[in-house]
Amino acid sequence: MPLTPESGYARRDYVDRISSQEKLYAEINQLFGTDPRPAEESDFKKLPYLDQVIRETLRLFTIIPAIPRQIENDTQIGAHLYPKDTILIVNIAGIHHNPKLYPEPYKFSPDNFTPEAVSKRHRHSSIPFGAGPRNCIGKEFTQLMMKLSLVALLRTFSFHTSIKLEDIKLKPGPVETISGGYPIKIKLRDEGARH
Ligand code: HEM
Questions:
Q1: Dihedral, CA atoms, 128, 47, 142, 178, nearest 10 degrees?
Q2: Sign for the pseudo-dihedral over CA of 83, 87, 92, 93
Q3: Tens digits of per-residue pLDDT, 109-141?
Q4: Which atom of ligand 1 lies closest to the CA of 92?
Q5: What separation in Å is there between the alpha carbon of 143 and the centre of ligand 1?
Q6: 64 in contact with ligand 1, CB cutoff 6 A
Q7: Is there a contact between 96 and 126 (Cβ–Cβ < 8 Å)?
Q8: Can you tell me which atom of ligand 1 is nearest the CA of 134?
Q9: Spatial distance between the Cα atoms of 93 and 172, rounded to a whole number of angstroms
Q10: Residue nearest to atom 8 of ligand 1 (CA)
């Protein structure tokens, strides 16, 4: 992934990621307090930052980088006329890393998904699950599972890594995965801080 190797960038990036984790933990902690009940779907509208973190993760690491579409009619896009039956490739990863949409496209920044930031962009500026009538049928299920797992894990553990975002290598393919693994340290949160 072509991240800018600026001096100080990696450290800032690490600090940003840790502060996002703690901001998310604080949001979760504020909702549940000392109540040990597990999270349920109705909780998620009270956890806006959780939604932002997940949407930003799916933007930065676009699991399905491109999808094909065969067009039914002659179609004009910008200066180009594409004849009926042409197969076009929608470059989802390209959209997700377009600096006109995301000024620092290779930085992890959940603020890209505040309601205000979202309202300023085209509604198809973030399409990790595709779009239209053939979009992913697992979209809602996947997001629910990600939210349930993240809340459950962050209530008990904190996550640490010395890997910089710029060192993460992606294996190109129809489904993008991380090459060479991604070692992390998992620490149990203090009993006092854990609910
Ligand atoms: C993070 C996880 C996932 C991502 C990023 C993802 C992404 C996508 C994308 C980009 C498409 C193509 C949509 C399009 O052409 O507009 C798709 C299609 C599809 N996905 Fe997912 N998906 C995920 C998880 C799942 C899960 C968990 C299921 C099943 C429970 C699932 C079932 C499907 C099916 C059946 C299609 C084909 C839909 C069709 O052609 O009508 N996906 N997914």
A1: 60
A2: negative
A3: 999 999 999 999 999 999 999 999 999 999 999
A4: 10
A5: 12
A6: yes
A7: yes
A8: 41
A9: 11
A10: 129
